[in-house]
Design goal:
Layout lengths: L1 E2 L6 E7 L2 E5 L4 E6 L4 E5 L2 E6 L1 E4 L5 E4 L4 E7 L4 H7 L8 E4 L2 H8 L8 H9 L7 E2 H13 L7 H8 L3 H12 L3 H19 L5 H7 L5 H12 L3 H7 E6 L1
């Protein structure tokens, strides 16, 4: 028996008056203006008065939007959508710039020149292929989603769960999802940490780190910056949650 795969990995948020120093992260990132054009520097190239960009993981960039708001979509690179986005780039191309709303519409095939981030998300989700996963993979995914806050999860945990050797289950999981188990677990913890940070803004970041499976706030800060280019404190004060998929 096989089951449907887990949901795609998209973290969608809005950022106000965003100024981010040069950084790189391990997610695909789509940044789109909700109103005014903005400036970004990507791989050393200054891009002025743009309406958005799509960037590969691990590409150095910074972003300055001194007025208005930006919609930011961070997409786990090993997810179905991440693998689909990888096909959008030409050989040796690290980023795609959108100089107008028309270019955004054409790229995402939205069929409208009226920008709406939810329409963009729907367009991304429509590209996800229908895949039937091995039931053991689905079992591991469901376990992670229910137990991500446990700090003692290790390869043997999954081996005991599905009665496979750690090496065999790691190979099976990556073969079917494109992601390692450790990356999937980390992404799940980060998604939950960001969700709580932006939906329960009175809750302390140290408590959030501990409740979502991190050992302490410095560890959450480290992985958050690696994945999204900013610490949770910056997200908390300058962002609002759209949705986590």
């Amino acid at each position: 028996m096989k089951k449907q795969p887990a949901n795609p990995f998209i973290l969608a948020l809005t950022a106000r008056n965003l100024t981010v120093e040069i950084h790189k992260h391990s997610a695909y990132q789509i940044v789109l203006s909700n109103d005014y054009p903005f400036t970004s520097t990507i791989s050393g190239e200054l891009c002025k008065n743009i309406y958005g960009f799509l960037i590969k993981p691990h590409v150095a960039h910074l972003c300055t939007a001194e007025q208005g708001t930006l919609s930011v979509l961070n997409i786990e690179p090993y997810s179905s959508i991440g693998l689909e986005l990888a096909r959008s780039f030409a050989s040796n191309q690290d980023y795609i710039i959108f100089n107008s709303r028309t270019e955004i519409d054409a790229f995402f095939k939205m069929g409208t020149n009226h920008f709406d981030i939810n329409t963009v998300i729907s367009a991304l989700l429509s590209k996800v292929p229908t895949i039937q996963y091995d039931e053991r993979v689905t079992t591991m995914v469901e376990f992670i989603r229910s137990n991500f806050f446990e700090r003692d999860i290790n390869p043997q945990t999954f081996a005991d769960l599905v009665f496979l050797s750690p090496s065999r289950l790691a190979s099976l999981f990556k073969e079917q999802t494109g992601s390692s188990l450790s990356k999937y677990l980390l992404w799940t913890r980060l998604r939950q940490a960001i969700y709580v940070t932006l939906s329960e803004k009175d809750k302390g970041l140290t408590d959030i780190a501990y409740d979502t499976g991190f050992y302490d706030l410095p560890q959450l800060n480290k992985y958050m910056h690696e994945m999204f280019g900013m610490p949770p404190i910056a997200l908390k004060h300058n962002s609002d949650l759209i949705q986590v998929y």
